[in-house]
Specification:
Blueprint: H1 2-31, E1 34-40, H2 47-58, E2 61-67, H3 69-77, E3 84-86, H4 91-98, E4 108-113, E5 115-120, E6 142-145, H5 151-162, H6 166-169, E7 173-176, H7 179-187, E8 193-197, H8 198-201, H9 204-209, E9 210-214, E10 223-229, H10 236-246, H11 249-257
Parallel strand pairs: 1-2, 1-3, 6-7, 6-8
Antiparallel strand pairs: 3-10, 4-10, 5-8, 5-9
Length: about 270
């Protein structure tokens, strides 16, 4: 009788051991999970820190891809394996939603961006004149993002037209494929000035190498930026957790340090 009890006890112990091993394996798999994020280039100064904090808190890795919102739109339409799309506007996520390529109800307006006129420290341009400083003969090359697929480029064109400067300055444009490349043109000396995202010029490197002035908010349509979960994502739960992480007060505070504000109606 004792022998049977001993066998049963051992069987129970073995089952418990298998359960512990199974749970550990599940935890390891969850910890090793990775999400692929397509993010607008204006987020390149702050999102690496957001991703690092998220990974530390959840164990889920975030593979960041920065570029033009319009180019990411086309990639997702052609089946690119992204889990999340962070656009520099609202229209691109809404277009994907209308095409049935997003997880229903997941569009989230996470920030509002701002435009600035940025010049290197040794520039003779008088930024107190705002965009009119670009009329100076010293501004031979002006960097803007390509308005065909970069929301910040569209906003730059809109602001220049509002000030009545677009036609006279158009021949000076040096166009970046995204707002990050546009900033690099100014940093490298390939442009004398740039109409850039506030988030980029607040990065330590750009703050130390140049100065800027904000453009009048009335000169361009507000740069409301939205994110959405891609319908084909294999990691929707982790993607939802990342969106929820953006709503946390400490993440909102970090974004605000790079010039982003919350859209109206969003609470911290």
């Amino acid at each position: 009788m004792l022998g049977i009890k001993s066998v049963l006890a051992r069987a129970v112990d073995v089952k418990r051991l298998f359960l512990v091993v199974f749970l550990c394996c599940c935890a390891a798999l969850a910890g090793a999970q990775e999400i692929a994020v397509a993010a607008a280039a204006d987020l390149s100064s702050v999102f690496p820190e957001v991703a690092a904090r998220f990974e530390k808190e959840t164990g889920t890795k975030v593979r960041m891809n920065f570029g033009s919102s319009g180019q990411f739109l086309l990639q997702i339409e052609n089946g690119a394996p992204f889990d999340l799309f962070f656009s520099a506007d609202v229209q691109y996520p809404q277009r994907l939603e209308s095409e049935g390529l997003t997880q229903p109800g997941t569009i989230y307006k996470y920030a509002i961006g701002e435009l600035v006129l940025y010049v290197p420290n040794n520039s003779p341009l008088d930024l107190s004149q705002g965009l009119r400083a670009l009329q100076s003969p010293s501004a031979k090359r002006i960097a803007i993002a390509n308005p065909k697929h970069a929301p910040y480029g569209r906003a730059a064109v809109e602001a220049l037209k509002k000030e009545g400067l677009y036609d006279s300055l158009q021949s000076k444009f040096v166009m970046g494929e995204n707002i990050s490349q546009t900033a690099q043109f100014v940093q490298s000396g390939n442009a004398d000035a740039g109409i850039l995202a506030l988030s980029l010029v607040l990065s330590p490197q750009m703050k130390s190498s140049g100065h800027f002035v904000k453009l009048a908010a009335s000169d361009y349509t507000p740069l409301e930026q939205a994110a959405v979960i891609v319908k084909s994502s294999k990691n929707k739960t982790a993607a939802e957790r990342f969106l929820a992480f953006l709503r946390k007060p400490e993440t909102v505070k970090l974004l605000s340090q790079y010039g982003f504000t919350l859209p109206a109606g969003k609470s911290k």
